[in-house]
Amino acid sequence: MTRELLQAAVEVEESNIKTAAGSNLANASIPTAAIDNDGGHVTHFELARTIERVNRRFTDLLRIEMGKLGVGDIGPAQVMVLFTIGNGDLSVRDLLDKGHYLGSNVSYYLKQLVDLGYIDRVASQRDRRSARISLSQKGHDLCQALRATDDTYHRLLVRDEGESRELDNAYRLLQKLELVWTNATRYGA
Amino acid sequence: MTRELLQAAVEVEESNIKTAAGSNLANASIPTAAIDNDGGHVTHFELARTIERVNRRFTDLLRIEMGKLGVGDIGPAQVMVLFTIGNGDLSVRDLLDKGHYLGSNVSYYLKQLVDLGYIDRVASQRDRRSARISLSQKGHDLCQALRATDDTYHRLLVRDEGESRELDNAYRLLQKLELVWTNATRYGA
DNA sequence: TAACAATGCTTCAAAAGTTGAACTAACTTA
DNA sequence: TAAGTTAGTTCAACTTTTGAAGCATTGTTA
Question: Among A27, A89, B48, B97, which is 20 to 30 Å from A136 by CA?
Fold first, then answer.
């Protein structure tokens, strides 16, 4: 039931985006945020704004799903760290690079996550300064549970090969964007 | 000169993404974060992680640009509010919808932005509870200055019609994503 | 038209997330 | 072995976000 509702909303919105004129007659369920770019060319800031909004929404969603799973000891940001670790067995540095985090930031999260038993931290053999970080069983379980809920939305977004390709394209573009912005901050604008 | 550097970096990375194998031999300037998805299918969480990273990078960049312009009285988040207002003349509610903000959050920012003279707030005639919000000259100037710096990056990302189309597609997909996630939070997962 | 509900927005206090500077410990090199 | 480098941590300050409660104005209804 919920599924159908969501599905319907997506359909509606798609046509709305395509026609672009967006006469949102008496349809309160459609966020005005989405109907904005009228076929013209997307500017950099529009893109950034959209990314910010989408990110906010995802965080909200994550918070809700976590609530349902009864996870109250950590926040969405920490969960994102867990996902960044994934199945890997990383050093802190690797983790920093993988998530573009700040050192002290990750240190802070790591401490909590280790204390709460979501990740295992083992000092490296060859270099005792360095730590090997990986998900504990508890961490894996949480990620697994969240991934499961998330598949639902995935199927709403990607319904055929075409949409899958679109998604891949968007993903690649975001990576390019990340790169451009990373280099810009690094080598000065 | 800086321009060339950035450009080169993008070229390098593009081939890297395409070959996907990503043998990052002795090229320290390439963030490992970007070389991740090996041609397989993008999961929802990968996408979310990327969006989070990209958002972080943009915020960093914005902070730097603001520093250069000598803007020290407000932060990136406030600037995003300015951009959300844009050329509009909105009520607070409109602004909330446009940026998916929380009421108290916007109120908080608005207060600062009004105090510092970046925006004008006028009580509506017909409904004195409601406020009309718009950028002041100072606000417009700041946005203009930031947009100018930003055009540089835009040109790095979008170099021909094809890339422009890619960008539009990605933008549309992000909007779809926003909608799916918004509805998910709204109507329960 | 007086009472009450709804709306539009603000305030406040607390929590969450982020940053930068200073620090410790372990390793490397001259 | 002294000086320098690297890996990671700690701490204190800051920004951003959240939720509950509040105020003024407008709409509604008895």
Answer: B48
How far, in Å, is the CA of A105 from the C1' of nucleotide D12?
14
Q: Do B33 and A178 touch (CB under 8 A)?
A: yes
Token output for A147 = 């991934």
* pLDDT one-digit tens code per residue, B94-135: 999 999 999 999 999 999 999 999 999 999 999 999 999 999
A-B Cβ pairs (cutoff 8 Å, strict): 261
pLDDT in tens, B52-100: 999 999 999 999 999 999 999 999 999 999 999 999 999 999 999 999 9
Please give the C-alpha separations between residue A133 and each of A86, A87, B8, in angstroms, as whole numbers. 10, 10, 34
Q: What is the pTM of this model?
A: 0.83
Q: Which two tokens stand for residue A68?
A: 């349902």
The first and second tokens of residue B61, run together, are 């960049």
Which CATH code for domain A74-157? Answer: 1.10.10.10
> Alpha carbon of A135 to those of A116, A121, B4, B94, B124: distances in Å?
12, 9, 41, 43, 54
* Rounded Cα gap, residues B45 and A59, in angstroms: 11
Residue A28 above 80 pLDDT?
Answer: no
Please calculate the CA angle B81-A179-B66 and round it to the nearest 5 degrees: 35
Residue that is written with structure tokens 């995802």 in the block? A58
Q: What is the Cα gyration radius of chain A?
A: 20
**Residue A138 C-alpha from the chain's centroid:** 21
Sorted by where each begins, the domain ranges of chain B are 1-41
Give the gap in angstroms from C-alpha B129 to the nearest C-alpha of chain A. Answer: 22
